[in-house]
Design a protein that fits this description.
alpha+beta; TIM Barrel; Jelly Rolls; 8-stranded parallel barrel; Glycoside hydrolase; hydrolase activity, hydrolyzing O-glycosyl compounds; signal; hydrolase; Galactose-bd-like_sf
Amino acid sequence: MRKYILLISLSIIFCLVTSGQTESTELEQNFKNPPASVKPRTWMHAIDGNMTKEGLTKDLEAMQRVGIGGVLLFNIDQKIPDGKIKYASPEHHEMLKHAAAECERLGLSFGVHNCDGWSSSGGPWISPEQSMKMVVWNELQVKGGDIDVQLPQPTKRNDLYKDIAVLAYPAFASELDDLKNQPVISSSNPQLKTEILTDNQLDGREVLSKKEKDLPWLMYAYPKAKTIRSVLIVCNQRDPIATLQVSDNGIDFTDVRDLYTVRTGKREWTINDSFEPVTAKYFKITFNQTMSFQEAKLSATQSIHNVMGRISMGRTEDVKMTPIGQPSADMIINPEQVLDLSEYLQADGTLKTTLPEGDWTILRFGYTSTGAYNNPASDSGRGLECDKFNRPALKKHYDAFVKKVVENTKALAPNAMQYSEIDSYEMGGQNWTDDYEQLFKEKYGYDIIDFLPLYAGRFVESPEVSNAVLWDVRQFNCDLMTENYFGYFAELCREDGIQSYIEPYGFGPVNDLDVGAKADINMGEFWMGREMTMVQSAVSASHIYGKKVTSAESFTSNPQINWKGHPALAKTSGDLAWVYGINEFMFHRFTHQANPNVAPGMTMGRWGFHFDRVQPWWDNAGTAWFSYMMRGQYLLRQGVPVSDFLVFVGDGSPNSVYLRKDFEPTIPAGTNFDCSNADVLINRVSLKNKTMVLPEGTTYKALVLKNSKVLSLKSLQRIYEIAQAGVPVIGEMPQQAAGYLHTAEQKALFAQTLASLTALPNVYAGFAWQQMMEQESISSDFSIKGREDIPFIHRADANLDIYFFFNPDSSKQRFECSFNVNGKIPELWNPMNGEVVKTAQFIHEDGKTKVWINLEGEESVFVIFRSSSKGVSGVTNIDKIAKASYSLTVNNKLQEEKETESIALAFENDWTVTFPSLRLEEKSFKFSELIDWSKHDVEGIKYYSGTAIYENEFKLSNKQLINNQRFMLYLGKISIAAKVVINGTDLGVLWMPPFELDITEVLKKGKNTISLEVTNQWTNRLIGDEQYPNETNFDRNAEVMPYWFLNNEPAPLKQRSTFTITNFYGRDKTLLPAGLIGPITIKTTKKIIIK
């Protein structure tokens, strides 16, 4: 489809070229020449204080030159030697002022991340009192009577600890058993200080190393058989796998289970599991990796399952919450027997009071800092994370950096300074703040202090009551974070006249869609080579809250991509992001090149797509790729999104969104959906003609209930209203009211409303999609015969429908498509070159339009319906399709186009190939045949990276240049891109297979000249340089960068020609194919008017 009107063999489209034949619309004009507002933007990372004004200017000029629209500047620590610039210093602010002023000069937008590092909001100006807080506790078992004891101190981090309450209750027999029947702990490391593992303190660290194939382990040997019901291990390893084993002799062990794990901090994981009683004398826990422990203990008491997830210290989404557990009655606290002893606690931690006779457990609760720091931050910018539940704490942070940047740059760059961002939230949980208990009581009507034992994993009153209270706790914590962190950040930005970018998800108490409501621009993220699962929250939030732009941290990648990356490699990842609803690419990542005299220079460690001005393809394939993006992003911001279903994610917290695969059976192919929270259902959805309608005009045909078994009364009532209006409702039916406190009247109303809802004929329990769609006359929006795997996106305006999809295969395919549009001519809009055609190969049937479309491997297309098809008939005769291409002329005459021949070009001479950056005196060579550079005998060419210029001549006769004959140039194999110049006319850059181009208009009789500027990647040159010693004196572990780098001097290179911070290649790595490999051919077609 490089030229829609040209179709080869069976791959034929009937089309009417509209460009130049009808009056161009504004939509077409802006598609061909998109406005600056739709340019992609990029993150730019300054690494470890290595910043210069010269480098910033060169970086920003390079962005402006190729079509990048703006930059969001980060400062990142990557453990390389420091540069001269300290974060938030006067010198740093001077750099930011310079960058903003240069953006103003160049017409770029500018913004900064809100803190040092990429996560999340902290700095040295945040005191422990303003940091994130968590509930901590310690316990003591005592006998009744007069008490005068020193209560053990709960964990104290960052020198912050304040008491909340001291509670006592009759001790469980299992707690007394833990006290009396204590184990001897040993490990695979005899030097391990095991006493740290059971001290109820989360501040020590003990390391247990994995040695080759031997797994590290902890063993608990009891004096007699012991029954265990729960395990708690706090560690600092990512995704540990811990396996519980038992033995009666300490030698032969049997596996019991892998233990449940949840992430509780940036670098903290908690194994918190409870299970059916297991009795043995020896318990062993093996680990899959080296472990660093803060706590590791077993207990006879059944704990609340996944207590850390239930109290918001770990993120377990409500839909994935495991059952809380069903303990025996003697392991449930009777609230009527709980004594509040807080008034008897002395300042030194001594408790003096009198208790009734019997054994008592005393729980001392307090709060401390979570110890979370912004990351990965430099020494000068690192500090505690601000309290996410507290507005004054966030304002302290915002004013310390972002506000200063705004104040410093607004006068210099009134148009450029536009935004700040909260990037990945990776700081883990928080569950306390100043005045938390009062705030909680105001909202829920009961005292959380009565239920503090839940935070220690104890059941209170019953499993059902415990679960209900913890449901309230998680909802409250998510609401606090939404309003006082994300929401307040957006408010502060708007007060300063800038916008907020927010990634509305993360490892903490976050309800994604609620957060997305607060952002000015929602941002997802997608990685090359990974399943795309982190854009949907941003997309749905934007759609349901009417936000036109949805951005994404784009083309993030693992180290395997490194310098091998190039536009063609990344294109399908971007196309898939478009299909999922992203319409602004924010590149991850552009690294600031502080020293403009080295290449490829600085990297962001080993991470990210190397989207840098030093890339050889930056000014050719890069420019073409960015133009492709602009055309696509322009169309994807028109109208409103079209989705058939609105999926309600439920009221439970924390919550996210659902993917198609999360439904069983899955949501039918050919339909799309958005996810919604309760706020949108209640406050933004109106009901019209049995559909749900948003204020912007987006409509949904059915409401889908997911994770809705536990709902608030308010949500249930709204769902009933929606169903009463005739909207089909399908999915998981509600079963019980959410939360703890309910009056008898509320309980009765919930039951009555639920009964009324499920009695309606348009309510379908379970996911009976086919039945619902048939009965409600809902049909697919888009389908491809035999290819249900191909996703799509659809946007619409009053008289306009825009569809987009792409061919995921590497080979050319012919697709028989069906669109849920009738009475309009389908048009094919090509974002590669801006071409617009009206296809004649279509038919209207059953209220839809069937269209046959050919796409090259990994090619994409926009299919647009805007003009009436009244009086126009499509051509669908398959026998004719097999022999020729038929289109309509301006006068509606049928025109036949046939391929006449395919010939290899006869070039007059050997190719002259010039390698401008070759470090040889002679830079031009004669190629008698096209060859892969990496196989060339000349070492400089073998390892060459950059652009080489191929020049030659060919002749055409008058006979060949007959009327109505079109010439298509095919370059064969190229690694990776080529700029084509024929007879002095620049025809653009070919950067995607099949590397074809219509050259008809520039050909002439006789001699024709051809020049091809062919570009490859950095990889081969970097491998070539590994053949020689490194003479730069760069030491990655040094404190500061070498003097020549800091002074913007060239690297002291001898045999090498490159300098880079991160080495991805060894000397024996395989070279990549490079250059123009061919073969080069021309295919011709001839048009004949046949009637």
